[in-house]
Each structure stands twice: as C-alpha cells, then as structure tokens.
Task: structure prediction
Amino acid sequence: MVEQKQESERKVNLVSLPAQQFVIPNSQEIDLSVQCNRQISNMPYAVKCFKFTTRNTDKFNIIGAREQRDGYREICKKYPRSKFLLHIQVKEGTEFTTSQMNFIENVQNIQETPFFCSYEKSFRQTAREFEEQILEAKEKYPKKEIVPAVEVYTEFNAEKVAIMKKHGIKKCVIIYRNYQIHEFSWMELMGALDTADISRFVFGVTPRYRRKNKATILLAPLRFGANYVAHGLPWSGGKGQVYILGNSWIYNVTQNSTYPASRVQALNKVNTLTPQIQSLSIQQIETLLN
Result:
C-alpha cells in the first residue's frame, strides 16, 4: 500500500501545471449571474451545456437539434466577449448513436462560435477511426477550429493525441469523470496532451464539492494540468443550503448570500486561488480530495 501511494505521488508530480489556469462558466452559471446581477470575472471562453438523462433522451436526436441550435446561437450572440464551446453531458460509459452524432454536429452548425467540438462516437474507437472523424470535421467545417472531445478514459489515448498533433489541433475537451477511479487515465491523457502542447479544456465537473469536507472538486482537474475547467449541470437534487467558497478551497455555509450569487462568487473566488496550486504539497491536495 505504501509503495502504491509513493508511485501515485511520483506520477502526479510529473504532471506539469500551466502558467495560468482558469475556471470558465457554463450556460447555467451565466444565467445565474444575470439573475443576481453579478458579473463573472473570467469569460474568454464559456460552455454551452446540453444535459441528457433517461428523462430527455428523446430530444437527443436530429429533430431536437433544430430547437437546441437556436438556443446555442442565442447565448453566443448575447455574450460575444466569450468564445463558446459545446459540452454534451451524458452518463459515464455512453457511446453515441448515429442519430446522436448528427445532433452534436447540427446543433453546432452556427456562425456565432469559432469552434466545432468533434465528439468521439465511442471511447472504444480505434485511433484510425478517431482520425477519420477529425478529418471529416476539418473538411466539413474548414472555417472553424476543430476541437476533439474525448472521455478521460478514452482508449488508445497516446495514439489519439499523436493524431491531434499531426493535424495541428491546438485544443482538446476532456469530459470530467471521477478523479479517484480514473486517476491513471487522468495522468496519462493530460500528460500526453501537455507534451504535445495541446490546451486542455475539462468540462462537466460534478458534483461541485465533496460531501466529506466540502472541498471544491475543481481542484482535481486543475491539479492534473487543465488549462480551463467548467462545471457540469447538477445531475439531481435541490439547492439545499447556500455555500460560499473560502480561501482554503472549502465551501462554507452562509446566510448572507443567495444561491445564484453564491455560484458566481465561487467561480470568481476559485480564479483567485488557482495561482496557489503550484505551492500546494501532495499531502495538502490529498487532504482536500481524498
């Protein structure tokens, strides 16, 4: 057990951290900022999030894309200072159908964003199949920057990163999954992307904090070397108590804020904390996240 822990610490130390790291808002958080009339401090990028569960899977098809595309276009127009990327939030292990892939493509067929997020049809697909998707996207959308979107546990990750570098890819979206269960996948993929000089955008961080100590889970992808990180939409549950993010990466209960304001405060606060990550020891990080 001691040897396993030492190996884990050694490998985490091999993940280099970018000079600057930012948490960017998703579309729900932008709406909350409007509700409470508080500005989100960092918005060079933003994330349009579509969440699909068993309750709304019927909308995850080419017909549903027409309505959703209008919503994507509207938020891009409303916040032109941000460049929007797409997050398709689905349960872990999902492999997309042809109809769902058509949805993902058609909802992005707008001029208001400079990006086309090319989602893997399956995390099991080969490197050759992955390359075919990238080439098809580049051919169909020559005026857009192609941004591959992969599960953190995508198979053949080294080969896929090599393909990204080969075709001049500068950004990659990594779908957030549990940082403890998939620890070595995180280290392998993020390390490979770092070596290839590809910016890492981690989307879908849920829940927002650990039940045990209320530490923000944003710390996990940031510690693994993400350049930009965004929350996902809550999978379930109500708002409950209102929490404010403190200086030690811990959420604290407050009676002096509304839920929308607390969400905006957390985004702004964590962006003041990110420069401190490099000074945190492995022990401090483990205390917060384990």
User: Anything to note?
Assistant: The CA atoms of residues 164 and 170 lie 8 Å apart.
